[in-house]
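Complex record, two chains
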Amino acid sequence: MRIVALAALFCSCLGAQNLAFYVDPSSGASPVNALTPLSSTYAFPDTPAGAVSSTVIRIVNAGSAATVVDAVYVGAEAGSTYRTPNFTVTGVGLGVTIAPGAYKLFTFNFTPSSTGISFGYLQASVAGASIPMATAAGNGTAPQITLSCSSPDIVQCNGAMLQPNSATSINFGNTLTTDTQPIPFTLTNSSISTINPQSLLSLTVATNNPNNAFALSSLPTTLGPGSSVTFTITFAPGTATTYQSKLLVGAASYSLMGAGISSVLGDISSLVITYVDSTGVRLTAQAATPISLGQSVIGGSGPNSFTFSITNPQTTISAVPVSTLSVSGTGFSIAQPPSLPFSVAPGESVTFKVSFNAAATGTFNGVLSVGTRVFALTGQGITSPLPDPSFSIDVQPLINQKQANLSIKFPTATTVSAIGTLTMAFAPSIANVSDDPAVAFTATNGRQLQINVANGGTVGTYSGQTALTFQTGTTAGTLSFTLAFPNKAPYSQSFTITPAQVQVSSITAVRQDPNLVITMTGYDNTYSLGQLGFLFYDTSGKPMTDKPLAVDASSAFKQLFFTSNQAGGAFSLKAMFPVVGKVADIGSVAFTLTNSAGTASQTPVFQ
Amino acid sequence: MKLLPILPICLGLFASSAVNCQVGTPSVGYVRYPTDGVRGIYGLEGNYIVAGTVAAEAKAASFSEAGGLIFSPGSLTLADSHFATVASTEVSDSDAILRLDGDLNTAIAWLPMGHLLVHWNGQSFVTIPVAEGSIADGATSVRKLDANTASLLVPKPDTTVVRYVVSLRTGQLKSSTTVPGASGYAFENGNRILCFKDGRLSVFTQTGETLQVLPVAADGDLLIEQASNECLHLGTRTPGEDWLLHLGDGLFHLYRLPAPRRVAGPVTESAQ
């Protein structure tokens, strides 16, 4: 057995001998050969009492076997495990295994509690053996910015200066989820400069969870030399679990912790309120932190809605009755709530939605109440960074059978790039007519275009083109353009094409003995063309009849426009007149077309 | 669609019998899209409706009111105005330049690899070998001037355009002249020469007088094909780069031609 123990000790020592220590200002980013080995002595810069100076140390396992580092600590004397209050080690746990070639980082802090020179003996404990790493020295200077707290329940909160970057947390103790634990802190400015506590102090939050069970009370923006300010940190747990956070005062860090507790039997404290945020992440609501429903663009595409769940944990013995569930505050609303009162059985949940829809810019605050549990809500009303666009069309007033160009302009340069959708809609003004197939953007032959706006641009483009060509069709009605960007109220503008007399695009009159043939194309944007008139003239210009020959073509046009419509109000017409006699004597024809908007006439000469 | 009943007319001393009216959907012509086949185009100038496919795999095409001349690898087909095949002939060339700008007798194809002119004489396709070396490579336009002669336009490396007139009886070159003022891609239309260069389409007379200059925002190489008697299709291989050029009142009018819709639209195909 003794041989085995010696062998184990020997192996452990071998492992310890393979550890190398480096000063790592890159916090792990640089290769080890770019680092300076930690010398046997290390001097911290002069540091005010109550403040901290830190350096990152890298422990590298240069051997071929894994090594377990039981602890890294700073002794008050060489080889001593008695800790000095003037130095701390953070960022490394107990019993850390370092694989061959791997490394661990920790932070070595000088935290003078008083003025004067202090020494600390940085050591690593490996397999029960203490390995000296460096002897550190630091000079504590007069205090500058210090922090203290006051609470009979917390050891450190005895009014004395708190040690920053301590491995020991300020423990707020056990607190019911329906309760809060406020602790007063005092920030003292012993420097010769005015400081801004609002920017100096903050609570850390997890990057994936904005909710903190600790809340910081309001702070002034200035604190003069020699002054102090008292503020409160409140622990208000959302659920029965242990919470940790850090109070940052400049570079100094103070660890906070607290334990949320709830009734196991089952009451309102047992309930866990969670919600799914806009990214789909489920978070636990904390009474200490307002639940942000994000930014709502005024006139945007709709409210921001989160789905909330009230869950009674499986471990609770009884169902929990809830008599009130409400949301208050301008812009906030509740949707799909359960009928009141309701009860949540162990292991079950009820859900509802909370929405925020801002009608104006600014910060809005609300309150969600679940029984006696109260959660602050917040949201911001913003305007889109895109200025409001405007449309211009190069054909005014808009008429049919045109290829017009629509331009999208912004009054000022945009501060963001954006992609939007331009949609064109056409509403004919003719009863029982729903569309005109020719109305389309020529680029796609469709009615939607993806519009790009460059950062700093003042125009919208499609495929780099600023002039967006579209066909106006051959039907009277209203063309509406709508430009929609994400998180911005859509912009629409309509253009009316009024009913007009029949428009003739082409017309020919030909003698095809023994016939006269009149051929034309054109459009009737009222779909009401019916009466045709033909008054023939001889080659000397004399009318050949007293009055025009009237032809009622209503049924033919009605069938074309309403039964077999393929081209809106566009039509072709071929009229053939068999003639007995000399067709050569007929010179021209006055041809009239009458629709609901009036009578159009053409006088082609026979060829 | 006929208008009934038949109405009598009286033209002074001329005995009238009846008027016959037909109304219908106006046809603009037919267009070959590089990747979407041959499509009928309905509507009016500047107001087009692209109909369904009438020929899927055409590599070149030319259309008039009388019909269409369509080249697909391996065959040259002449169709009437109802798209019924009038005649078809096998060709071995992989490329062809076509023209049909009037009645079916105006149908002609230039097969550059074989140096052949193939034209319709009213009865059958006639293949005329053209002497090697008489016509430079790179012809962009062919046109049947009459039953016995054809013309070709060839842009030269020095950017000038040469017009060749070839006998359709012998295949011999009858004349070769530089078109005054013309440069770039060239296309003969009646007594006008169209040239595209540097984003501009210029219209010249045969004597070199500039009649019109139209901007054409084409990114790629432009190709012109006859869409109907009075309408030319200008396009590149890039989807969305299509135009129709209408000849009216002596001036050309250029409009954007929409691309075919990718989903079935409300328009169905019918003959002109």
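Note: Chain B has no helices and 26 strands.
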